[in-house]
Specification:
This protein has 218 residues and is of the alpha+beta class. Helix content is 44%, strand content 23%.
């Protein structure tokens, strides 16, 4: 190979690497600017509804779980709509059924505003040992037939929970153990990115108002 040809190949490689780097940087800048440009009053309204929007949206890990309908789920399926993600379990005595009921009311409020078809509501089980597909299929649709329950491998759930700022751990032993868990809602945008966190105390109006603001200002 001649020296001229080697130099030409080096230039071609450098140009290719530079081109790819520009594409990657542009992609992440687009993600950041999507929410960095929210007007201060919009951010204030979101905060009034207990919703913290991240300056830099967070990517989600590749996780595989099972829907309560028996179908396989991957995190790529969050794409295409707004998503409210709740972590809980069917044997939860207090917080979980309250949150699910609040989500149902918020869903109705969004439906009245003509926005329900742009949002999906999820419950991810933090008790996969007991929350089988059959168990979830009896629990989740009770609150709303449009809601989706997820269960599966404990490590996969932990990976997703960690990225969505949720923590949980088992308390006690035997058949009557409980699972302590954080009481936040995660909001994932139509690009499949974790963009906001809703903190307690929760109200249905907080959920509906925050999602409405995000949908109308995306």
């Amino acid at each position: 190979m001649t020296e001229a040809l080697r130099q030409k190949q080096k230039r071609t490689i450098r140009l290719t690497v530079t081109f790819l780097a520009v594409i990657v940087v542009s992609f992440f800048l687009a993600i950041v600017l999507q929410f960095a440009n929210l007007k201060p009053d919009i951010k204030a309204e979101l905060e009034a509804n207990h919703t913290l929007v991240f300056q830099t949206p967070r990517l989600l890990p590749d996780v595989t779980l099972m829907r309560h309908t028996g179908e396989s789920f991957t995190t790529s399926q969050f794409e295409g709509s707004w998503n409210l993600v709740n972590f809980g379990y069917t044997f939860c005595p207090d917080i979980c059924p309250t949150n699910m009921a609040d989500m149902n009311i918020a869903h109705k409020q969004l439906a009245e505003a003509g926005l329900a078809d742009q949002v999906r509501f999820w419950m991810v089980s933090v008790d996969p040992a007991r929350d089988t597909i059959e168990q979830l299929s009896n629990y989740v649709p009770y609150f709303n037939p449009e809601f989706i329950g997820l269960t599966g491998d404990a490590d996969q759930i932990t990976t997703l929970a960690t990225q969505l700022s949720a923590v949980f751990y088992q308390e006690g032993t035997g058949d009557t153990y409980t699972v302590a868990h954080s009481d936040n809602y995660a909001i994932v945008d139509p690009n499949g990115h974790f963009v906001a966190l809703m903190r307690p105390p929760h109200k249905p109006s907080h959920i509906a108002n925050a999602l409405t603001l995000l949908i109308n200002n995306q």
